[in-house]
Design brief:
binds S-adenosylmethionine, VC0802-like, eight-stranded mixed β-sheet, 28% strand
């Protein structure tokens, strides 16, 4: 099976790695993965382009076509491109010669008889160096996710990128349905629908519901928005595949119960079989989520967010 690679940024490494693996598992539950430093390698039926079009944090991606040691013997098992460029991605702890790209470019251009094009190549050959291996990766294009627009913002909104990442952690593919029972301005719904995942938003504040509807309409999206308390989940649980939400805290909670009690009550009504991805303020952890996989996102000295996946 083809291997694909994903180079991640230095920030949020665990989260970025698990996002890529989760996207692949939404389509191919038998996905195998390995990672080293900021490199994730997947063995999966899903194309790297599909994963890169959804992933939030990927810097570079493509197929792994070979490994290399002796530069003069490099001969990747792929059709020769009309033109190409070599790019080094050094993820190792050692210094790599600045002439590596030129040397490999020379070998490949003699082997293939293809031109090197720095500005508009038909193929980019990545020389990915880690402490344990040197990979040759290839990509015929660079894929960037197409993000939805947001016309109305609000101070307590979750940022667009983190919202996309948590939708991806729910491991759903197109046509499945998520519910965000504290939808606020609808950021999570926007990201879900931009990936053709259906979504239902709930918020007890009519103003928030109207903001969400406007944000959805600006993208011609059709997610349903219900003006109600999160308890509405009990009535729609049969129609949803996962719950992805950013729990209220501080002024966003505007509720008579304490933030911790709200988290506890909320988690207790979610059926155990449903995938649950929640974001909450560090310190509001509840026992029901003790076995969940957790990631911490530091924002400022009084706000560290926890993303928990159960
Ligand atoms: C942290 S904000 C969500 C922000 C949202 N992710 C966004 O990007 O705009 C929490 C939202 O939960 C809503 N909320 C608070 N308590 C609620 C409850 N008991 N039932 C439903 N919604 C509630 C608030 O009105 C607020 O819009």
């Amino acid at each position: 099976m083809l291997q694909s690679f994903f180079v991640l940024p230095g920030q949020y490494e665990d989260l970025a790695r698990d996002e890529v693996i989760s996207i692949s598992k939404s389509y191919d539950p038998k996905t195998k993965s390995s990672s080293e430093s900021r490199l994730v390698i997947l063995e999966s039926k899903v194309s790297w382009k599909k994963i890169a079009s959804r992933a939030t944090f990927v810097r570079n991606s493509g197929n792994i076509v070979d490994t290399f040691d002796d530069i003069s013997k490099i001969d990747p098992p792929i059709p020769k491109p009309l033109s190409f460029v070599c790019r080094t991605i050094n993820l190792s702890s050692r210094k790599i010669s600045t002439s590596l790209e030129k040397q490999v470019g020379g070998v490949l251009s003699r082997r293939w008889g293809s031109k090197v094009s720095l500005s508009n190549p038909h193929l980019t050959v990545y020389l990915i160096i880690t402490d344990s291996e040197q990979y040759l990766g290839c990509a015929d294009t660079k894929i960037e996710p197409k993000l939805p627009i947001k016309v109305i913002k609000h101070p307590h909104e979750l940022d667009l990128k983190l919202s996309r990442c948590i939708v991806n952690l729910s491991q759903l593919k197109e046509g499945k349905t998520i519910c965000d029972p504290f939808c606020g301005t609808g950021t999570i719904l926007l990201q879900a629908e931009s990936m053709e995942i259906k979504s239902i938003g709930i918020d007890f504040d009519p103003l928030m519901c109207s903001i969400t509807r406007k944000n959805l309409a600006a993208n011609q999206f059709k997610s349903k928005v219900i003006n109600s308390s999160y308890n509405e989940i009990r009535n729609i649980k049969g129609t949803i595949d996962a719950i992805v939400t950013d729990l209220p805290y501080g002024i966003a909670s505007r509720s008579s119960v304490s933030p911790k009690k709200l988290v506890k009550d909320f988690v207790s009504i979610i059926p155990k079989r449903k995938k649950l991805v929640i974001v909450y303020k560090k310190g509001l952890d509840v026992e029901e989520m003790s076995k969940a996989k957790k990631y911490e996102i530091y924002r400022h000295k009084s706000l560290t967010r926890v993303i928990a996946v159960r």
